[in-house]
Amino acid sequence: MQSQQESASHTPIPAANPIEEVDTVVIRFCGDSGDGMQLTGSEFTKVSALAGNDLSTLPDFPAEIRAPAGTIAGVSGFQLQFSSRVVFTPGDQPDVLVAMNPAALKSNLEDLKKGGSLILNTGAFTKGNITKATYETNPLEDGSLDGYKTYKIDITKLTKECLKDSGLNSKSIDRCKNFFALGLTFWMYNRPIEPEVESINKKFAKKPELAKANIQVFKAGYHYGETAEVFTESFEVRAADIPPGRYRNIMGNSATAIGLVTGAQLAGVELFFAGYPITPASSILHELSRYKAFGATTFQAEDEIAAACAAVGGSFGGAIGMTASSGPGIALKGEALGLALSLELPMVIVNVQRGGPSTGLPTKTEQSDLLQCLYGRNGESPMPVIAAMTPSDCFYTAIEAVRIAIKYMTPVMLMTDGYLANGSEPWKLPKKEDIKPFPTTFRTDPEGYQVYARDEETLARAWVKPGTPGLAHRVGGLEKDALTGNVSYDPHNHEAMCHTRAAKVMAVQNSMGELLMNGPDQGDLLMVGWGSTYGAITKATNLMQDEGYSVSSCHLRWIHPFHPKLGALLKRFKKVVVAEMNLGQLVKVLRAEYLIDCEPLCKVQGKPFKVIEICNKIAERAGKVS
Amino acid sequence: MQSQQESASHTPIPAANPIEEVDTVVIRFCGDSGDGMQLTGSEFTKVSALAGNDLSTLPDFPAEIRAPAGTIAGVSGFQLQFSSRVVFTPGDQPDVLVAMNPAALKSNLEDLKKGGSLILNTGAFTKGNITKATYETNPLEDGSLDGYKTYKIDITKLTKECLKDSGLNSKSIDRCKNFFALGLTFWMYNRPIEPEVESINKKFAKKPELAKANIQVFKAGYHYGETAEVFTESFEVRAADIPPGRYRNIMGNSATAIGLVTGAQLAGVELFFAGYPITPASSILHELSRYKAFGATTFQAEDEIAAACAAVGGSFGGAIGMTASSGPGIALKGEALGLALSLELPMVIVNVQRGGPSTGLPTKTEQSDLLQCLYGRNGESPMPVIAAMTPSDCFYTAIEAVRIAIKYMTPVMLMTDGYLANGSEPWKLPKKEDIKPFPTTFRTDPEGYQVYARDEETLARAWVKPGTPGLAHRVGGLEKDALTGNVSYDPHNHEAMCHTRAAKVMAVQNSMGELLMNGPDQGDLLMVGWGSTYGAITKATNLMQDEGYSVSSCHLRWIHPFHPKLGALLKRFKKVVVAEMNLGQLVKVLRAEYLIDCEPLCKVQGKPFKVIEICNKIAERAGKVS
Amino acid sequence: MGTTTTNGNKGGLPVKLTRKDYQSDQDVRWCPGCGDYAILAQVQKVFAELNINRDETVFVSGIGCSSRFPYYMNTYGMHSIHGRAPAFATGLKVSRPDLNVWVITGDGDGLSIGGNHLIHCLRRNVDLKIILFNNRIYGLTKGQYSPTSELGKRSPSTPLGSTDNPFNPLSIALGAGASFVARSIDTDVKHLQATLKRAAAHKGTAFIEVYQNCNVFNDLTFINVTGKDVKADRQMPLTHGQPLVFGKDKDKGIRMTPNGIPEIVSVGDGDGQVPLSEVPLHDETVADPGYAFMLGQLQHPNFPVPIGVLRAVEAPTYDEMVADQIQLAKSQAKATDIESLWHMGDTWDAGSTAE
Amino acid sequence: MGTTTTNGNKGGLPVKLTRKDYQSDQDVRWCPGCGDYAILAQVQKVFAELNINRDETVFVSGIGCSSRFPYYMNTYGMHSIHGRAPAFATGLKVSRPDLNVWVITGDGDGLSIGGNHLIHCLRRNVDLKIILFNNRIYGLTKGQYSPTSELGKRSPSTPLGSTDNPFNPLSIALGAGASFVARSIDTDVKHLQATLKRAAAHKGTAFIEVYQNCNVFNDLTFINVTGKDVKADRQMPLTHGQPLVFGKDKDKGIRMTPNGIPEIVSVGDGDGQVPLSEVPLHDETVADPGYAFMLGQLQHPNFPVPIGVLRAVEAPTYDEMVADQIQLAKSQAKATDIESLWHMGDTWDAGSTAE
Ligand SMILES: Cc1ncc(C[n+]2csc(CCOP(=O)(O)OP(=O)(O)O)c2C)c(N)n1
Ligand SMILES: Cc1ncc(C[n+]2csc(CCOP(=O)(O)OP(=O)(O)O)c2C)c(N)n1
Ligand code: SF4
Ligand code: SF4
Ligand SMILES: [Mg+2]
Ligand SMILES: [Mg+2]
User: Fold this and answer.
1) Are residues D34 and D167 located together in one domain of the fold?
2) What value of ipTM does the predicted structure carry?
C-alpha cells in the first residue's frame, strides 16, 4: 500500500513535459505585514477552489499590528494545501515557499520541504533587510539554500519596470509586487487568469488606477513565468472528487457566525450577541454585526463580563443570548455563566482558544482552555461543552450549541481555536431541507405554572418571555426551590437542585448524533481528539491504516457530557492516545471518567499538529494488522 | 470495644446524684437573629475552654441581615461540642437544644437527639410567633415534643420580673433574656459564675447599666436552675487530657489572618492584602486591617479583580501580595491569577468556600470550588492548591501557603470554607521556636541577572524589588523567553515554558511535610478527605476502627500537587472512598491521576458531614479486621 | 389568587391597580426600620398610580440588601450578580425595547464593583430607570465602608478610618453624560414619588440617587441634611423654571461667578442682597452637563444639598438607535432567508456534477 | 552595556542622563507613523531632563498598542492585563510609596474594560501618573470603535455606525474627583513635555489625556482640532493665572453666565466686546471641580478645545494616608512581635501541667 502522506508523491519535479500533473501541493506565501500576503494567499485559494480542488488554508499573523518593516516580528504568512484528493489540513511542509524578503525567508525556510521550491524576491535582499532579518551573511550567496530549488527573481524591480509609466508613486508601485508573485504562481499551476483579473477589478473598484496597475503586474508575473525560462515546468492539480454541489470557501469564525444565525432561525428565536473584541474571536462579532437583516442584534459591550451579562439579559428576554471570546475573556465570564446556569436560561458562549496562560500568544492557536471551560466557575456548575472540528464544521457545531442550549435551558460552551477561526476550507452549502429546525415553545399558559417545574425528558424548565400576561416571576442567583423557584435555603432542596442541574446536562446524551469513528471499532490503538486536531489526526490515521497499522480514530464533538458510547469504545482498544494542543487536558477528563490509561500526545507551540507528528506516535504505539 | 460515638454514652439522664459526670455534650443555642445567640454560644464556649474541655463550635447564620423577627429565615444558631476527650467536630446532634422562640424550635428540632433536652422560652410562644414559624398548632401543646425532655420556662417573663426595677426600657430588658438562658446552662453544667460576671462587665464596659442588668439576669437564670426544681440534675464535664500549654479559642478566619501575618514575618517580607468583602471571607480582611502594627497593609479594593491585581502589584513591589474571597469572587480573579503565574510572582489567594453555584447559599459551607481553584484559568495555568483542616489548622496552612509562594515564586491557592471560617476550637499557642522561619532572599546583584533564569532545585526565578539599582526589567503576560524574559513568540520556547511552569509547581513535592495518616497504611478501606471534613472523617474512622473495621483515613493538605507518597498509599487499600461536600470533585482528580476506582461520598447541603454519615459509609464499604 | 403560580404571583391586568397589586407574595426581609421599605412602598404606589403594566415590567438588580428589591415586586424580575445589573438590563432592553426595565442597585453594587457598567449604561443612554440606594455602607456584608462613605469612616475593614475620598454619585453620572439625573430621600415620601414619576416618564437612562438609611450599620448618616429641623436650610429642592433658592424663607440663592464658581447670595431687595428676579432659574434641560454638575457638587456644610431633578435632556436612546439600524438593514436587505446568508460571497459549483 | 542583563538594560545612575538612557534594548514595534512614538520620545526626554531615577521608577500598563510602552522604557515595568493597570499600580504604590509609578493606558484599556479601576484610582488620589493614549479606536484588535469614538463611527463591529455616545475622558476623571487633570497632543512636542513635567511634579493621581493618532485604523481623527491651520482657533491653551482666551490674536474669550453656562465673548475694548481684564483667569486650583468640568466640556465645533492643565489641586494622597495609619498603629502598639499577635484576646492554660 502506498503512503498518502502529503509530501510523498507530488513534489514539482522538473520534467520535459511542460505541464506535469500532481495531486497535492502545499504552498506558502510570506513577506512583510505590508506586503499583502494574506490577499495573495486568499486569491490563490479562490482560484484553486474554482478549479475544483479540495483545500485547506492557514494564515499566520504577527502579534503586532505592523511591526517594523523587514523584521522577523513583522512577517506574515499564508499557507494553502490544494489537491485532487480530499484534504484534511493545510499541510505539514510547504512544497513551495514564496518569500518576499529576507525576514520571511529566515523565519519560514525551516518549514520548507527538503528539495522544495523557493521563490525569492531578490530585490528585497538589501544589506539593511538582511541585517534586520538577523542574517549574518547573505543567504542568497552563502550556500544555505543549496538543498532547495531556488528561483531568484527581482520582483521589486520587475514590478517597478512594469509600472514605470503608470503615474503611481513609488510606494504604491511597491505595494503591487505581491500580484507579480501571484501571477508567477498562477503560471506555475496553470491557472486561468481571467477570473483573477475580474476579481482584482472588483476588489479595487473604487481605485481603478490601482486595479489597472495590479492587473498589469499580475499579468507580468504570469508572463514572466511563461517566458523567462526560469521555470522549466508547470503543474496541474486536477479537480478533486468531492461531493457535487455549490461550494463556498469559509473560515471558521465566519462559519461560527453563520451557524449561530442559522441556529437561531431554526429555533425561531431572535439572536442577541454581546461581545468584546479579542483576538482571535473578534471577527465573530464583526460578522454578526453585518447580519442584522437575518435577525441578529449585536452589542459591543464595555468588557467581557458585561458582554456575558448582557447575553443573559437577552436570554431572559426571550432571545438566544450569545457571546464569544478567547481565554482571558472567558476567564472573566465565569461568574456570569454561573448565574446563567443557575437561572437555567439558554445561552451560547464561544471560546476561540489561543495560546495561554495569561495574554500568552494572542495570535497563535492552542487547546488549553478545556479545563477552564469545563470547570472555571464556582460551585457545582455543570455546563455542556462541545467543540468544532474544521472551519466548516464550526457551522454545524454552532447550530448544535443553539439546539442544546434551548432544548435543555442551559448555557453551552462552544469551543473552537485560532487555527479553525482563521483557517479556511471549501464548504459545501447545505440545502435548507437538509437541516432540521427545532422550533422553540415559549410558555404562555399561566395555569399551573411553576417557575422551576421541569420537562420530564430534558429536565428543562419552561422559557417564559417577559411581557407574557400572568406569568410574571422572579429569578436569581441564590438557591431556588425546586418547584416554585423562590429563594430556598433548605439543605435537601439544595442538594437535590445540584443533582438536578447535573442530571439535566447529562440528559444531553439522549439527543446526541453519532460518535465520529474513523476505522474499525476495535484494535490496537485508538487515537482520540477533539476540536481542530480533527484534520491531522484523521489524515494520519488514514495514512497509517494504509500502511497496515491497527489504528482507528475517534473525534469528540461532545466533551461534556461525553457520548454515551464512548466508554465502551475506548475499552475495545489496547491503547488510547489523545492528541491535543495542551499538556493533556482531555486526557485528565477521560481518565477520571473511564479509568482508562490513556496517554497524551501534546503539542503546545502555538501551531497545529503536523500529520507526520501523529503518524510517528501511531507507529510507536500501534502494531500492524496481522 | 466500646463505641465512642458522641451521642452514645453521655446523655444527661436524670439521676439521684445532683452532679453527674458525662464526658461529652453537644449543646445548641438558637433563637431570633436579635436574640444574641452568637454571644450566648461564645460565652458558653469560653467557660468550657477555661474548664479545660476540648471543644469545637459551629455558628449558623441566616442569609439576611435581620430577617423579620420571629420567622424561620431569621433564626440564628450556635452549636458547641465540649468534652473531656478529644473533640473533632461540633457534634452530629445536640444533646441539649435551647430554643428562644417557635421559629428556632421549628427549624432546629429535627436535629435534636431523640430523648435529648429541650429548653424552651415559652414566653415567645405567642399566637403570632407560632404562626410566623409556620406551625399550624402550638407545639407546646400538640404533643409533638413528646420524645424529648422538655423544660418549658417563660424566660421572657422571668427576665422582665428580674429587671422590673432596673430603669431599662422594655426593649432593652427583652434583649437581656439570652443571659437568663446562659445562666441556666451554667447551672446545668456546673460552671463557675465569676468569670462570666467579669466577662460581662468587660463586654459592656461602656454601658454599665446594661452590664448590671445582664449580670442580674444571668445570675437569675443560674439560680432558677438551682432552685426551681425544674431540673433534677446537673452535669460535669471534666477537663480533657489535652497537651499542656497556653490555649486560645480560635475561629478559622482569625487563624488564617494570623497565619498569613506569621508567614510574612517568617519570610521577612511585608504583607500586602487586598480584599473585597464577601461572605464568609470578609473577616480575614477585617482582622488583617487591625494588624497594621504587625506589618500588614490592607486595601479594600473596588472589586475582586482589582483586589487580585493590587495584590500582584504588591508582590511586584516585594511584599507578599494576598487576597481572599469566596466562590463568586474567586471566579472573577481567574484572569489576574493567570497573570501572576505567568509573571511568576509569589502570592496567596484564600478561597473561603460557600454554597454555589452562582450566589448560591452565601452563609452556608461547601467544598465545591475545588475544580475552579485547580483549573479556573485560561491556558496551561498550574498553581499549587492547599487546604486547611480545622479552624486552628488554618494558621499552619496559611504559613505553608506563604512558604510555597515565596520559595517557588508562584501564586498559591489556600482553600478553607464557611464551616472552618466561623467554627472555632481551642488552639494551643505555638512557641516561636517551634516554627521555622524561611527568610526571603531578594536578588540585588546585577551581575549576570537574567529575568527568567531559575533556581535549579525549585525552578523559581529570582525576586527583585523595584528600586534595586541595576536590575530594572520588564515583565508581562505575553509569553516570555525562558532566560531573558523578553517577549517571545518562539514555538519551542513557549512549549518549554509551559512545561517549566508545570514542573515548578510539581517541585513543591520536594519540600512537603508528612502525609497525614490515621490508622494502618493498608487494609480494606481508605477514607480520603481534604479541608474541613477532617474532624468528621477522623472521628468516624476512629470510631469504626474501635468497632473492628479495617479502615484508615488520609487527609490531604496538598491538593496540587499531591503528596508524592499518596499514589502508593491509595493502592494499598482495597477500596478508597472520598468524602467531600460537593458532587465528587477530588474524586475526579484522584481517578485521573492514579487510575484508582475511588468512590465519592457526597454531601451538598450547606452543612458539614455528620460523623454518623461517614460511619455508615464505612460500615457499608469496609470489612472487619479478622 | 386563582391561577397564581409564578413564584406565587397574580397575573393579568385588572382595571385599576393598587399598591397591593405590585406586591409579590414573598416576605420582605429587610431589617425592621430599614429605609428600603419606604422606597419599595413608594415605587409600588407610583406604579399603581401610573397604572404600569406589571407583565411588561422587569426589575433587575445586583447583590446587596437593596438588590433584594425585585423579589418583592409583582413584576418580572432578576436578582443577578454583584455589580452587573446595568449590563443584564442593557442586554434585555436592547433585545426587547418593548419592555419597561428598571434597575435597582446600591452604593456598593452600583459604584464599587459595578461602577463601570453604570457609567457605560449612562453614556449609551439605554432606556432604563436606575435607582441607586445610597446608604453609604455595605449593608449585606455587614457594615464595611462603601465608595460613598465619608473619608475617615470607621468600619470593620477600616478600624482607623477609611482613607478614600467618597464618590459623589451625581457627579459620576454627569461625568458619564447621563441624560437624566436626580436625587431623592427615602423618608421624603412625596418628593420620592414625584421623582420616581419623572424618571418613569424619561426616555433614556434615568439615574436617581436615593438617600437611604441603614439603621443597622450606618444609622442616621444623612441626618445632617435630612433632619426635620435642618432640612429647610440644608436642602435645596429643585424645580424646573423656579429660582435656585433655599432656606425656610427662601431667602438664600445660588448663582455662578463669571469664573464658574457657585456662590450663595442673600435674596431680597435689601443692601448687598440679590433680587429674586436675578437669581438663576433652574433649567433641567441645559445641553451642557456643566450646569447640573455644578449643582451636584453643592454639599453640606458649605452649600445646601440639591434634591430633585438636576438634569433631564432629550436624546436618542441606544436601544432605539439599534432598533432603527436593524429596521434599516432589514428594509435594505436583498434577502433575509437563511439560505441567502449561506450563499453570501463567492460561491462555485464543484464535484462530479460540475462540468 | 557591561553587566547588562535585565531584559538587556543598563542599571545604575550615571551623572547626567540623556533620552537614550531611558530607552530599553527592545525594538519598538508600533506601526510606522504611529503617534505612540512621539509620546514615548517626549516621556524619555522629560525623564532625562528631570533626571528621574530609572531604578526607582515603574511603568505599569494594561493591554493595547499603547500598553506596550513599558517594554520600551529602561525602568522597571509591568505589561499587565487588559484594563487593570490602575489596580496593579495602586497595589504597588500603596505597598511601596517610595517608588515613582506611572500608568500607561489606552481609550479602550482605560475607559472601556478598565473604566472602574480608573475612576476609583482617581477618587482615592493614589500618587500615580496616568497617561491615557486616546486614539479613539481599538488599535491592537484592529480597529473596532472605542468609548471615545464619535457617535456614528463605522468600524468592523459597527458597520452601520456606532450607536453609543462617546465618553469625554476629562469629564469622567473630574466626575470621579481627580486632583490633576490635563490634556495634550502627541504631535505638540513642547506642550506635551510641559504637561508631562507638571504631572511628574503633582502629588496625587495625575491624569493626562493625550490625543494620539492611529494612522492605521483611525488616521487624522483629531485633525479638526490639531491641524496646523485650524489649531489657533480651535484650541485654547490653558495657563494658570492667564485669561481664558484663544484665537490667533487672542481675541476670543470664555466666561460663565450666572446660570452656569459657558459662552464665547469677543475680547477687546470695542463695542459689544469684553475687555481683557474682565475675561476670567484660568485657575487650576479651584477646589470645586465644577469649574474644570465646565472647561473639559468645551468641544469643537461650538467651542475651542482646552489643552493643558485644567485642574491641579493639592490633597492628601491615599498611599500617604495609609502609610500614616501604619505609622500610627506601630507607634501605638503595645507589642509587634509575632507571639504577641498569637496571644491576643482571651487565653488560658490547660493540659496536664495546668493546675
Ligand atoms: C462577586 C461578589 N463579590 C462580593 C459579594 C459580596 N457582597 C454582596 S452585597 C455587597 C455590597 C453591598 O453593598 P450595597 O451595594 O451598598 O448594598 P446594601 O447592602 O448596602 O443595600 C457585597 C460586597 C458578592 N455577593 N459577589
Ligand atoms: C480580557 C481581554 N479582553 C480583550 C482583549 C483584547 N484587547 C487587547 S487590546 C484591546 C483594546 C485596545 O484598545 P486601546 O486601549 O484603545 O489601545 P490601543 O491599541 O488603541 O492603543 C482589546 C480589546 C484582551 N487582551 N484581554
Ligand atoms: S443591613 Fe441596613 S440596608 Fe440592609 S436591610 Fe438592614 S437596615 Fe437595611
Ligand atoms: S494600530 Fe494604530 S495605535 Fe496601534 S501601533 Fe498601529 S498606528 Fe499605532
Ligand atoms: Mg449600601
Ligand atoms: Mg485606542
Assistant:
1) yes
2) 0.95
